[in-house]
Amino acid sequence: MKSISTKQLVGVAVFLFAIFVAVPVAIFVTGRFDFFFTLTSVALLSIASAGVWLTFHIGRINIGQGAFALIGAYVSAILVTKAGINFWLTLPLAGIFAAGVAVLIGLPILRLRGVYFAMITLVLTEVVRLTALALPITNGAKGIVSIPLPMELSAFGLTIIPDFSTLANTKLAFYYVACALMVVCFGAMYRLVHSRLGHLCRSMQQNEELASSIGVNITYIRIIIFAISSFLGGVGGAMFGAIAQSVYPSSFQVADSVNFMLNCFLGGLGYVFGPMLGTLVLYFGWDLLFELGKYQMLVYSSIMILLMRFLPNGLLSLTFPKRRNAKSAAVPFKSAQEERSR
Amino acid sequence: MKDLSMEQILANGVYLGSQYAMIALGLTLIFALMNVLNFAHGQMYVIGGFITYTFYGQLGVPFVLALLMSCITLAILGALIERYLFNPVIKRSARDESTMLLAAGIAFLLDALILLIFGEKQHGVPKIINGVFNYEFRLIIPYDRILVCLMAILSIAIFICFMQFSKTGRALRALAQDRVAAQLMGVNVDRYSMIGFALGAMLAGLVGGLLVTITGINLGMGGPTSVKAFMMVMIGGAGVISGAIAGGFILGMLEAVGLAVLSQYGDITYLLIFVSLMIFLAIRPHGLMGKPWG
User: Is the residue at B282 inside a domain?
Assistant: First the structure.
């Protein structure tokens, strides 16, 4: 296990300060309250994108995250409206249900590779959308509307999360919840990627046959990874449904699945925090370009093409050489410091 | 809704299948040559439709000439996209899949351009020939559908002959089989990749131009067409020409039968097609004729 350097700790602290203190303050000062919703969406979408990134890590192109996000959103919405369960309980349940579906579907389709897997997951998104349209419990095209706001979550008489309907500023509350979820998710991702499982994943990404020949149980690992990925998709989708207070079959469709994948590409497939940056740039960029009116799409897609043309390995590849130098410079400094403290 | 006769369903299937096969051919050609999943294929099809609409419907140019204009424009567009976008990105990116973002970006860009130039309304053109073929009220097909179907089958035949017997076709097939080996044998890889991409785009434009006379054309057709084309390619096996044709006809048949038989149960035809496709691929991961590559 790699030890965490002071530089990384400082980076994390700055990041946490930025999202939990600096951004809300900046929004209150400038009065752009609509950014709360945008940034909340970014946080949730980046969780789902992180799932897609994980499947990239085992060398699969996943264009089916929209399906699992939709499943998660529906599970949570149905449990809250029909069974009256507390939303905060349905959040993990939605993720677990999505993961269960992923295991069932993954057993056959994870045998596929390359574009075949990509295309079948794309089809999966359509399947889930059409199923949601056809099933009675999902209420067809009308969807499930007016889902109540999340209730209070308490343990041993101690309120952990207050009842959202009593809060004055639900937007801010949702923003904090989404950011907290995102931080937990990416923390877990970072840990996972640098664990033994993460290294096994990387071996599969390079060559599955070789990995399997030296004793890696590739079937087991790819199912586990696909389940984790779908869990993240389900949680992200469920939270999204709670914020919008409604779920429709069109809440997550093929375009969303493709976007989740694009977020990963844009951020860079080699970097754990790639999906976060990619989501921020793509979603926020799209929002900022709104002022351009009918030229929004034109400018947005041109920027996307240019980015890919000149940075084909993702946005984070820009900082890559610099960071490597910094790290190699920092290591001797740190070990010297450690020796001194001993 | 009245029951359709068996002949009618089969004829609809062949008609749909011939269109689909052409769309899938272009997609599979591009995939075989460059390992690029062309998300923008549906948009290229829409552009082809709009160009034929402009020349034939607006300016009154003869239909065949308008169709030719669609082909030429799309071929040039495809060549430019390959030369200045895909080629450099493929050479520089660490992983092959990075081209997907580029392809999706191009799809968005073409969508935006279509919206700005042609607007989002549905456009149609006057019929190329009037009249309806009627066989004892069991088989009813408008003449223009028959014509379009025949033209599509003819183009597929020409395309296959081109790939089999011309020098360019041989080079393209060599490139699809093994890029490095083809290069070692003296095939100009860059040049033929460009030609192949242009050819694939041209096929998309040709279908668009043909179909505009029957279904009309609108902006929203691009995305669903791409998804359908992906399915056909998967059924037949990615990168195989015969597979794409088979996949196109199979999907066309399934759709025709499904719409006729299942219409009283609502919109579940596509759900069933999707689910059976997933089961099929679980049993045969490389489609009907695909090669077992990654």
Answer: no
Which residues make beta-bridge pairs with A159? A154
SS3 content of chain A, % helix, strand, coil (to 5): 75, 5, 20
Question: Which value, in Å, is the radius of gyration of the alpha carbons in chain B?
Answer: 19
Domain count along chain B? 1
CB atoms A301 and B112 under 8 Å: yes
Kindly state the average pLDDT of the residues B239-249: 88
The three-state secondary structure class of A191 is helix
Residue from B33, B95, B251 to probe the interface with A (highest A Cβ count within 10 Å): B95
Q: Looking at the domain assignment, is residue B279 inside a domain?
A: no
Q: Given CB atoms, is B281 within the 8 Å cutoff of chain A?
A: yes
- Does some domain include residue B98? yes
The answer to whether residue B274 neighbours chain A at the CB level (below 8 Å) is yes
Q: What's the pLDDT score for residue A74? A: 92
Q: Does B285 touch chain A (CB under 8 A)?
A: yes
In a mutational test of the B interface, the residue from A116, A117, A208, A300 whose CB has the highest number of chain B CBs within 10 Å is: A116
CB A266 within 8 A of CB A315: yes
CB distance from A126 to chain B under 8 Å? Answer: yes
> Which residue range(s) make up the domain with B198?
19-221
pLDDT digits (tens, 9 = 90+) for A92-146: 999 999 999 999 988 888 888 777 888 888 888 888 888 888 887 777 778 888 7
Query: Sign of the C-alpha dihedral, residues B3, B7, B10, B16?
Result: negative
Q: Is the pLDDT of residue A24 over 90?
A: no
ipTM higher than threshold 0.90: no
What chain B residue is nearest to A116 in terms of C-alpha separation? B234
Confidence check: pLDDT of B114 > 60: yes
CB A287 within 8 A of CB A38: yes
Which residues have CB under 8 Å from B103's CB, separation 6+? B36, B37, B38, B39, B40
C-alpha B88/C-alpha A210 separation (Å) is: 31
Q: What is the pLDDT of residue A1?
A: 46
| Cβ-defined contact of B281 to A305 (cutoff 8 Å) | no
Average confidence score pLDDT of chain A: 82
CA B200 to chain centre: 8
By C-alpha distance, the chain B residue nearest A298 is B112
Most confident segment among A149-158, A229-238, A292-301: A229-238
The encoded tokens of residue B188 equal 């100009």
Tell me how far apart the alpha carbons of residues B51 and B57 are, in angstroms, rounded to a whole number.
Answer: 9
Which tokens hold the place of A207?
Answer: 């060559």
Determine, yes or no, domain membership for B174. yes
Pairs of residues, one from chain A and one from chain B, whose beta carbons lie less than 8 Å apart = 137
